[in-house]
Design a protein that fits this description.
This protein has about 300 residues and is an alpha+beta fold. The protein folds into 2 domains: about 5-200, Endonuclease I-creI (Roll), CATH 3.10.28; about 215-305, no CATH class. About 55% of the residues lie in helices and about 15% in strands. The protein contains 11 helices and 8 strands. It has helices at about 5-10, 20-35, 55-65, 95-100, 125-140, 155-170, 190-200, 205-255, 260-270, 280-285, 290-305; strands at about 35-40, 45-50, 70-75, 85-90, 140, 150-155, 175-180, 180-185. The protein has a 4-stranded antiparallel beta sheet. A 4-stranded antiparallel beta sheet has the order 5-6-8-7. β1 (about 35-40) and β2 form a beta hairpin. It starts with a helix and ends with a helix.
Amino acid sequence: MSFTAEVRDELARCEPECEYCDLSTLAALTRVSGTLSLAGSGRYRLTVATETGAVARTMIALTHRILKLKTEFTVRKSVLHKVRNYLITLPDQPDLDKALVLLGILDRRGGLVAGVPRHIVARPCCRLAYIRGALIAGGFVADPRGDFHLEIAVQGEEYAKGLCDLLEQIGVHARVNARRGSYAVYIKSAEEIKRLLQLIGAKRSVAEIEEARAVKLVKNDVNRRVNAELANQTRSAGAAQHQLALIDELDRRGLRETLPDALAVFCDLRERYPDLSLRDLGEMADPPLSKSALYHRVLRLEKLIEASG
């Protein structure tokens, strides 16, 4: 099961906080996943298509319990993608038009409601229930082991902005992005995603995100340390090769025998331990020498060769 499916399944099992919360959830489900068709003058047909069993179960259960309407249920299987597609249809029937007004899909004059219906999200708990329904119906939550990303795919710019405003009201910052005639309300911040899922009841999913984030932090820290160590080793190796080249040049010019004791000791140490850093090389001296002391001896060798022309 994908992480998105896990989140949807967990949200579909959340209990309502008040008697109107289930209506808010059902309203979001039908708005995000539903298609409204005219079946004649004043007659309608509502179809909800989904690949998620949690959406289908929630849609049917709430429709029967709240709206008392008849539903038709069809399961289709895609041969190409090998996934099931669930089709829930509310055929034309008495009181369907009233139910569409109650759900905030139609206004009282029979016109389509473009934005988020205000009467559905009047209470704070109902706002959370509505957002929960929208995420169950059209949400995507990336596996937290990869990039952090949450989005809700919807139709209509005004509705997308309304959903974005609804998220702002509960303290979650989201943005809207247009995509081939549809819109995505999206969040890319791990903290914002955690806050949203915590508010709408996906506590188990939040725990998974926190665990994945902790693992990422450890991996990133290890990678930084490894990269720093490799960089240090590369610099040390390059410096050691430069110092060996200085010693070879001293030999070529016949200056090795005239070196002061301090410089002669350094040359002997470097030839015996060609791969050590200056810090480690100093520990091999007797008595031990500091990295700074050895570095100044390298500078003296460079000046000596430069002065010899």
